[in-house]
Amino acid sequence: MRGISICIWAEAGQLYIVAEFLLQDWNAAIPEIDTGDDVFVVQDKIGLFKRIQVKTITGTKRKNGYSAKFIIPYTQISTPVNPETSFLPLNSSQ
Q: How many angstroms separate the CA atoms of 90 and 54, rounded?
C-alpha cells in the first residue's frame, strides 16, 4: 500500500465516501462509537437514511482492470438491521 498503513488507508477511504455523499447533497456523519457502520447518510429532502460500511481494498492489476478481495464478517450480512447496511468497496490502487 505504498508504505501507508492499513489504518490510514481505511480512514482515508471512509472520508472519501463521506465527501462523495456530501457532494451529492446528502448529509453524512461518522458515528462516534464503532458498532460496524462506518458512515450514516441522510437525504434530508426525502428523509432517506442509509448505513454505509466502507471496505477499502487494494486491487491487483489484471489485463482488463483490477481484481480484489475483502472480508465481510458473516454476522454483518446475516443479522437483520433496519435500514440495511450498504457495503461500498473502494479500491486504493487507482
A: 7
